[in-house]
């Protein structure tokens, strides 16, 4: 399915899951305005966190695809620090001539200008390194860091609809995020939202050609009710997005 379809399904899924995860019914903006102003921020924040987590989770499996929506967002995030490093290296070259510095400039230029796939891999690698640093500084447990870092590495080098669409990936990410939750108990809603959104993505792709749940066994499980990019795919994306907006506002 297209990225916007996964986002729409994730957003509607957050609305449906609200009574089970927040233990209160979904409250659209119209109903929130009739509540006490003291309670509005709390409800808005919880619902916004849940929707954001579902939507992000519904895009995560496609980080193995260079042209996917989530990958393009990661590229934009990586572009600024790569560009800043490039400018810094060029500035240093004015002070001294160094083959190492020139080599670094060439590498960064290639990363900034050419390969989307390289930018995506740099972004995922940076996340893994950052997690390792946090664990080294005892801000995060290794039980949380290692599985999530392994997921990032798997997404860096796997082909589309392979590792990230498997039960191994679900286990690694879920296990890691669960241990994040045990350290930071306030993020339990976001952790649940991320994982349910992730699973919704796999279910949606299962009816759009199947997913290799038991990867590295390449057999795809599911059916082809619709084709990615087809009229049905666009219709599902449009209906779920507009449906969520209607639920959010009215």
UniProtKB/TrEMBL annotation:
The record's keywords, sorted A to Z, are: Membrane, Transmembrane, Transmembrane helix
Q: Which residues form a coiled coil?
A: none
Per the record's keyword annotation, is Transmembrane helix included, yes or no? yes
Fetch the Pfam families from UniProt: YdjM
According to the record, the segments passing through the membrane are: 43-61, 77-94, 118-136, 142-158, 165-184, 190-217, 229-249
Report which superkingdom the organism of origin falls in.
Bacteria
Which InterPro entries does the UniProt record give?
YdjM-like
Tell me what this protein is called: Inner membrane protein
């Amino acid at each position: 399915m297209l990225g916007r379809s996964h986002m729409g399904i994730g957003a509607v899924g957050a609305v449906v899951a609200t009574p089970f995860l927040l233990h209160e019914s979904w409250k659209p903006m119209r109903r929130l305005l009739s509540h006490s102003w003291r309670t509005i921020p709390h409800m808005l924040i919880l619902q916004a966190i849940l929707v954001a987590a579902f939507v992000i989770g519904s895009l995560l499996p496609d980080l193995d695809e260079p042209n996917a929506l989530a990958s393009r967002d990661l590229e934009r995030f990586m572009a600024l620090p790569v560009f800043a490093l490039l400018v810094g290296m060029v500035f240093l070259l004015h002070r001294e001539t160094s083959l190492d510095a020139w080599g670094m400039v060439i590498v960064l230029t290639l990363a900034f200008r050419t390969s989307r796939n390289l930018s995506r891999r740099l972004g995922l690698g940076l996340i893994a390194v950052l997690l390792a640093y946090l664990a080294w500084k005892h801000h995060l447990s290794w039980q949380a860091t290692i599985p999530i870092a392994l997921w990032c590495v798997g997404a860096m080098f796997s082909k589309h609809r392979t590792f990230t669409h498997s039960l191994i990936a679900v286990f690694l990410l879920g296990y890691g995020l669960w241990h994040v939750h045990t350290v930071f108990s306030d993020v339990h809603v976001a952790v649940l939202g991320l994982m349910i959104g992730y699973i919704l993505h796999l279910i949606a792709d299962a009816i759009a050609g199947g997913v290799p749940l038991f990867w590295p066994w390449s057999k795809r499980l599911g059916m082809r009710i619709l084709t990615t990019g087809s009229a049905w795919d666009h219709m599902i994306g449009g209906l779920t997005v507009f449906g969520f907006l209607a639920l959010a506002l009215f």
